[in-house]
Amino acid sequence: MGSNGTKTAASERVAPSLIESHDLTMSFDPLKPVLREITCNILAGEFVAILGPSGCGKSTFLRIVAGLMSHTSGSLTIANQRPNEARRTAQSVAFVFQDPNLLPWRSVADNIALPLELRGVPREERMPQINQVLSLIGLTADDAGKQPRSLSGGMRMRVSLARALVTRPDVLLLDEPFAALDDVLRQQLNEELSRIWIAHRWTGLFVTHNVSEAVFLAQRVFVMSKRPGTIVADVRVPFGYPREPALRATADFARLCGDLSFRLREAAQ
Amino acid sequence: MKRIVAWILQTVLPPLSLFLMITVVWQAAVVVYQIKPYLLPSPLAVGAALIRDGSRLGSALAYTGAASLLGFSASLIVGTLIAFAFSQSRMLRNSSYPYFIFLQTVPIVAIAPLIVRWCGNGFQSVVLVAFILSLFPILSNATQGLLHIDPDLLDLFRLNNASRWQMLVKLRFPNAVPAICTGARTASGLAVVGAIVGEFFVGYGSRRFGLGYLINATNDQLELDRLFAAVLTSTLFGIAIFASINVVSATILRRWYDQAVEHRN
Question: Contact at 8 Å (CB) between B60 and B237?
Fold first, then answer.
């Protein structure tokens, strides 16, 4: 596979692989599989973007990793466990949906508190964690008391992100979270997300159909073919972190985006 | 202030002026054509009966009001609880839902003898009729609200290893509140109807009486002015109940929606 292999920190190479998928296939109808023979390794603390044409099954793959759907054949493990077992025992898995999906009857702070509540974290321990994640994601104490309906789309997505981060996830799965936002906002949130990733180093899987978003965020980009989806390219992104907005204006960035766009177009055919 | 004036002009004034017009025409017709009072009483006679019967109407209203409120509260609680059970088991839902439709469609006249046989005649049976009539809208709306949930939200709860109980209390129930409010609005009117009609069939024989009895008795005695006064009282009571349920649900729903959704029937 064409990999733009460049130097990466030695520690990353040694890091154990956290998510392992081997010949994973998923189908509702045996004649029309959604995903076929997906094989990949994702290291602990790695940030991977999955790029693919619409309807290629990339969201389905993400849901299988989350343990929300099951695959038909092959294997997928997180820390050597099946996803829904891993979620219950060792690993904390958080998911950011395309839609912010906030509970309209809860305030911002209570929405962020939800995962902690469900996991039985005592009330007095929740507040400091919520405050921490609020400032991390760029929300003020004033915002915390608001109802979701009074927030803009971008703010809602920040809250949704905060709700995912509040559990300090080991694995963060993002399903086109910024697809509905305008370009400037999307770029801003990409910058913030990459900054948060540097600080917390969760293992990230970011599904998108936006090439420059994938390149800006990730260390590696998987390109998926059209349905039945499989990984047709595993491309290393050679830029170091922190990634500054100026990166988008560099020739290397443009070249890589162009290359990936070409592969994506090929994959869609 | 401006909004209140606009509200009066747009919402209150038109029906009120129509009411006045009809009353005037009606009064004139009764006088001009000398319509017999046992066929159609004049509005003035109805007004006089309303004042004359004030205390009887008041106690009848207390009886009917208590019966309908008890029946309504029972169906609100029982309907929501059954819906909870339905939301937990598809088998339970599929096997018993048809019988609740049966309960909704069976004419109350047809089962009135059974109700009397089992519960006796009097207040408790009137409450039961109000309950039976108002149960279904709450049950069906609550069930719908508990089950009709964004799949992503269910996934969000599942990802955090939520228990069934947590899903019910923190997701399904709050999600169902708007639907339960809609059901309650329909049910409140039906409970009043149930309390009045129920008295026709199962309320006889007790020492106290409600609006249903008054309507029946005054009709038998051809006292149509008093009949109209009783009907008017029931109507006003029905409107009052409906309006207060609307206010309560609008207050609750303000947390769910941008603006309390306006409901007109």
Answer: no
Please tell me whether residues A129 and A245 are part of one structural domain.
no
Nearest Cβ partner for B166 among A88, A94, A118:
A118
Cβ-defined contact of B162 to A66 (cutoff 8 Å): no
Cα–chain center distance at B4 = 27
Decide if B158 and A68 are in contact by the 8 Å CB cutoff: yes
pLDDT surpasses 50 at A5: no
**pTM of the shown model:** 0.82
Largest CA distance in chain A: 54
Residues A221 and A194 in one domain: yes
pLDDT higher than threshold 50 for residue A6:
no
Q: Is A2 within the bounds of a domain?
A: no
How far off is chain B from A25, nearest CA to CA, in Å?
Answer: 21
> Do residues A257 and A173 share a domain?
yes
CA nearest neighbour of A101 among B57, B219, B153: B153
Verify whether the Cβ–Cβ distance B162 to A118 is below 8 Å: yes
The reply to whether A88 and A175 lie within a common domain is yes
Q: Is the pLDDT of residue B20 over 50?
A: yes
Return the closest-CA partner of residue A148 out of A165, A169, A163, A166.
A163
Q: Does residue A20 sit within a domain?
A: yes
Within a domain: A156: yes
Task: Tell me, yes or no, whether A244 lies in a domain.
Answer: yes
Nearest to A118 among B152, B160, B257 (CB): B160
Q: Which tens digit of pLDDT belongs to each residue from B185-213? A: 999 999 999 999 888 888 776 778 888 88
Contacts of A66 in chain B (CB under 8 A): 155, 159
Query: Do residue A59 and residue A181 come from a single domain?
Result: yes
Structure letter (DSSP) for residue A94: E
Kindly tell me if the per-residue pLDDT of B40 is higher than 90: no
Residue A161 C-alpha, separation from nearest chain B C-alpha, in angstroms: 13
Dist CA A39 CA A73 (whole Å): 12
- Return d(Cα A19, Cα A42) in angstroms, integer: 5
Res. A222: pLDDT tops 50: yes
pLDDT band at A238 (very low <50, low <70, confident <90, very high): confident
For residue A56, the domain's CATH number is 3.40.50.300
What is the number of structural domains in chain A? 2
Q: How confident is the model at residue B257 (pLDDT cuts 50, 70, 90)?
A: low
Q: What is the pLDDT of residue A15?
A: 60
**Amino acid making up residue B187:** A
The answer on pLDDT for A106 being more than 70 is yes
Same structural domain for residues A236 and A264? yes
When the pLDDT of each residue in chain A is averaged and rounded to a whole number, the result is 85
Same domain, A67 and A177: yes
CB contact under 8 A, B152 and A68: no
- Interchain pair A87, B161: CB under 8 A: yes
Residues A83, A29, single domain; the answer is: yes
How far, in Å, CA of A246 to CA of A9, rounded?
23
Is the pLDDT at B260 greater than 70, yes or no?
A: no
Which of chain B's residues have a Cβ under 8 Å away from the Cβ of A115?
Answer: 160
CB–CB contact A105 B255 (8 Å): yes
**Is B159 touching A (CB cutoff 8 A)?**
yes
Owning domain of residue A228: 14-92+169-268
CB contact under 8 A, A87 and B170: no
